[in-house]
Amino acid sequence: MSFVRTISVGRPQDKEWAGLGRTSIDKRAVGGPVEVHPLGIEGDQVSDTQHHGGLDQAVYAYAREDLDFWEQRLGMPIRDGQFGENLTTEGIDVNALEIGSRLRVGLPGVGVLLEAVAVRIPCNDFKGWMGESGYDPRAWVKRFTAEARPGPYFRVLETGRIAPGDPVEVVHAPGHGVTVRDMFVALSTDRSRLPDLLVIDGLVPKVRAKAEEFVQRTAGSLPPAEPVA
């Protein structure tokens, strides 16, 4: 059985290491049912609205199984919510979901319908948070990226109310074969796979723009990208 172990929310906190001077990555578990709106879970507030939040990043999920993997790698316990996820799941490989998969979360008549549309890209705030939490932050972004266990962002297609322990069911898979893990690799470590993303119906605009730009550059219709300083 697949289910939600923990639902976590966060509020902006001032942190010297955060790029904006504040961050909401410190998510803490809620004990009872919560409402889910188009922009996310009630009580959760985004700090960096340029890179996080919005309709295409309304809810972030991470699997307990992947947290267990990192526990072994880091040699320390990792609590649910530590990676900034709203939903800590169990019994489902969220990174193997096809982009566009739809998940029914919660009890019939009151739960929500979520659609996997994007992936988490690690940043220096994540590194700073891990360091503050007592983990080894050295090369954290590089290590996290290399394992390709990013966790998906979801759109909220149907609002409702969910609670810890609620079931999670995949009710639709689009069939194109491009997974959460595939999208992450294309956006982070192997740009040659960006064109693979163009088969996805409803691909988020900023990802489609990156994929289309790559296709145009490789076709020679655009000048080479400026080198990264």
UniProtKB/TrEMBL annotation:
<dbReference type="Pfam" id="PF03473">
    <property type="entry name" value="MOSC"/>
</dbReference>
<protein>
    <submittedName>
        <fullName>MOSC domain-containing protein</fullName>
    </submittedName>
</protein>
<dbReference type="InterPro" id="IPR005302">
    <property type="entry name" value="MoCF_Sase_C"/>
</dbReference>
<dbReference type="InterPro" id="IPR011037">
    <property type="entry name" value="Pyrv_Knase-like_insert_dom_sf"/>
</dbReference>
<feature type="domain" description="MOSC">
    <location>
        <begin position="28"/>
        <end position="171"/>
    </location>
</feature>
<dbReference type="InterPro" id="IPR052353">
    <property type="entry name" value="Benzoxazolinone_Detox_Enz"/>
</dbReference>
